[in-house]
Amino acid sequence: MNVNESAENYLETILILSHRLPVVRSVDIANELGFKKSSVSIAMKNLREKKHIVVSDSGFITLTPSGRAIAEEIYERHQFLSAWLTKLGVDPEVAVQDACKMEHVISRESFNAIKQNIQL
Question: pTM score, two decimals?
Answer without folding.
Answer: 0.90
